[in-house]
Every structure is written in structure tokens, then in C-alpha cells.
User: Fold these one by one.
Assistant:
Number 1:
Amino acid sequence: MYLYRVDKRKFEIGEEIQPNTDFEQYMDEESMKVENILNANRPDQIPVRKDCLFLFFELSAALNFFKKYGGYVYGVEPQKIYHRGDMNKLDNLLDLVRFTDDEDILTAAGNEYWKGGTHTFMPCYEYLVKSCIVRKCLVKPSELKSFTDNFKITDSIERTDLYLHTLGKISNDDNQ
């Protein structure tokens, strides 16, 4: 399975990517509360989120993350998938954290992320894995400015030159 990883670290093709477990120290209080709710309700067979990599299912979702945070976009192959979750449910939980302290509501919303087979109207799937292998470097940090400039014109990830070019590279790889 070919997924996408956005990462500030530089990796070579064939290299294994492991989690950068200190990401929580950069979170604001509300985001940290979301992580705590998720970890408190996490099924036993799934590792703690800080010990996982988050991989994108869709190139457009990876590029949207790249647009916000920069880094490299890699085409990767996961070693073992522990969970597939809809990231929109994380946004929903974050909204709830901002509006209520009701533990029952927050727990119920946190459990929604872990439920299999449920999703929002337009799901944005992330895969939780312990490691993955780099198959291709698709986008470099130096491409961020031209990408964001092009996005301002198109107002759509899928209509940017970078998306179309990268999708073409992936398609060509699949045909070889």
C-alpha cells in the first residue's frame, strides 16, 4: 500500500522512518487535551499516538498539511497499520474541547475517532503506523513557496501545478 508522509526530516529512498516522539511538546493546551482524550480511550492493541507515524491516504491531504507546515512529502510503504482514522473527527474533538469541559461528551467524541467503519461526510484518513519505508521523495521544502503562490490562484489543492505534476509522477511509476 502506497501512502504519504509529510516530515521535516530528510530521508533517502529505502530508508525507514520512525516516529519523532517529541511532537507533543510543541502542542498548545487544547491540542494536548485532544491527544490526552484520544490516548485515554485508545484500544489496547493500538500504540500511544506519540509513538506512531501519521500517514496520509490521499495526496491532496498530504499537500494540504505540507502547505501549512512545510517539509518533505514522501511516498511510503507502511510496515504495519494499527489504525485508520478520520482526521476530521480530530477537528470535531478540538472544537468540542474549546466549547465544553463535559467529560462524557469529550469521551464520546474521542471514541468516535477509534470506531471502525465510521467517518465524516468527506473523510481525511490518516494511518497510524510504527514505521514506514521511503519509496520516493515526491516534494521538497524548496517547492513550498511556488505551491502556496499557485494555491492562491487556483484555490484548490487538486488544481495546483504541484499536485498535478506529483500525481503524474506517481501514475508514471505505477505504469512502469
Number 2:
Amino acid sequence: LYQSALGMQRMMKFLALERRILSRPDCEYGTGASSDEIETATLNLGLPITGGYKKFLERFGWLECPYVSIYGLGEGVPRHLELTTLTESERTEMRPNLRQDLIPISNDGSGNHY
């Protein structure tokens, strides 16, 4: 029963996020990433993509708003938001290197990742 209630609570939070995104005319987003695209990214990054971020990828793929961008996958993802490319770059080219057990999903504008 607890797991069912927790799952329902997470779904409600995602639906609220979805409504906020869809209500913003100043945001751009994709049409969602396919299961194959998510699985390929999982294999390339060496880490599972799960939970709310996976649900976001499935629904939107990527997001770009005036004050926040979320890296993603799927058709039409701008190069500067492509998850796999950015993660590999952060792991190998940037200093300090991003740890191999992390996947960045957004940048705060000062080089720090969420």
C-alpha cells in the first residue's frame, strides 16, 4: 500500500511539472525520447537513467526556458543540450572532470551541474 501511495504521489508531482512546462509559451522542448534512445544513452554513459528524469525524457526529451535548461535526448535536441555528448565532455574535457558515477541534467550558468 505504501509503495502504491508513493507512486501516486510521484505521478502527481510529474503531472504538476508537466502542466507548468506546457503553460510556458517562452519554453521550447522536444517530443520525447524513445525507449531505444534512453537505453542507448544508458549503455553509453554506463549508468541507469531512471525515476523522474527518465519520465521527463520520455515525455519531453529536453527543455530550454529563459532561466533553466534541462539536458536530454530525442529528436530535435539542440547540440548544447544533448545529454550523452555533454556528459562525455564533462567527464573527459572539463576540469575538474565530472565523476563517472554522475550524469549532469542541467547547468546553473556558472559551470555547476545538477
Number 3:
Amino acid sequence: NQGVAIYADYEGHRVRARYFEPARVEITDGPLAGKSFKTPTGAVRAVVRHYNPTVNDNRNGWSFWQIDNGTGARVWLQSIRPDGTER
């Protein structure tokens, strides 16, 4: 299982990662590369804290990460979220 390629754009930075069902996210590039999180929200909060430590990091990861499908179309991670998974 190679996971699903995802990314998040935040404060002018694109952070690439891989999503593994039901909810794990591993960041694959940038300053947080190699870090793994139990949920998409945990991962995106780490991204926000890294780039903008003075703001509230409360974000919903399911509606922050996008699927890197190669088309340029915006497809949110929420669209493939398994039922009943935690934020």
C-alpha cells in the first residue's frame, strides 16, 4: 500500500504527503518530511504550527488536504474519507 498522494498549500508553501486509510498521514517533503500523524488534522496542525506558530492551529485536516491527482482539479481528502473516522 503506497497510500494516496496528497498536498496542502499553506502560507505560500506546498507540503506533500501520503494518506493511508483509515486516517494516517505521512509528510514526504519539506521541513516536516518523515513525520507521521494518526489523523489528517494532526498533520495539518503541525504544518500550521511550523509555518505560522502565532496563529490558532485549529484546522480540519479532511477539508485542508487535497488529493494530488495530476489534473490540477481541487479534490479534498474528505471525498475519500472512510465513514466514522476521527478528525
Number 4:
Amino acid sequence: TQFIFMKKPLLFCLLLVFIGLVSCKKANAVDPNKLQDEKPISTKCYQALYENDTIDLEMNTLKNGKISGNMVMSFLNMPKKIGKINGEFRGDTLFVDYSFIQGANKDRKFKNPMAILKKGDTLVLGNGKIESHLGVSYFVKGEPIDFDKVKYKFTSVDCGDAE
């Protein structure tokens, strides 16, 4: 008996290419949990207040220049969002993925992109147009991220105070 792939060489070639691409992607992928386990070279804490809302951010700088950390978003009349950030600076803008749980629902995890502009000693959480494709959310390419008309501006706090 002959294999189906021997009868259809194009299908066989496509399968090999697909397997190669998947294995390359896995080899280059950064495990967010591994970033969290790496010992930071510095840690800074920030807090943003707007009316009755508070965002606490603990930001770790890793040896490779990547950023990891923890973020808690407490908004009036909404369940608390507790999660982790992972990303990197591009120029003076920090681009991160915020992976979090919301309220008591520990089984459902969410992931959103965020852009945070560093202005001197403060950080400004930007607003940008986000779209999702196949369950992945990202900023729309070519659409500007607004750092002027914003609610949340972070100031530096002692890490023991940001809770």
C-alpha cells in the first residue's frame, strides 16, 4: 500500500512546511511565565488615580530589557482586574500584553494590549483602537494611540504603598 502523501506530493510538501513553521514559532515564542520567573534588575511601582478608579502597577526590568510585572485595576462598580504585564519599550513607549482575571471568575482569563508612554517620571496610559482576530487583540496598525486625552497618568510610589 502507498501512503496518501506519496500520491499527492503537493499535500505532503504543504504539511512539511506547516510543521516547520509551527516548530519555528514555538522555538521563538517567549513564555510569559518564564519572564515572570526571571529575576529583575530593577523594580518600580506606580499608581494612577482617576475619580474613584485606581490602577496599581509594579514594573520589573529584566536583564534582556524586557518588562514584566503585575497590574491591578480597581474601577468603581466593576469587578477588580488582577493580572500580569509582559512587553518591551519601543523608544519612550512601553507596549505590553495585560493578561488578567476579572472578579471572582478565576477560570476565564483575558488578554489586552496596552501602550504606556514614559514622560519624565510619569507614565501615561494611552487610548488606541483595538481589534481582535482569532481570539488575539492588538492595536490597529496605522491608527494613532492617543496619549493626550487620557484618564490614567501614573506617578511613582513606594512598592509597599501600591496595594
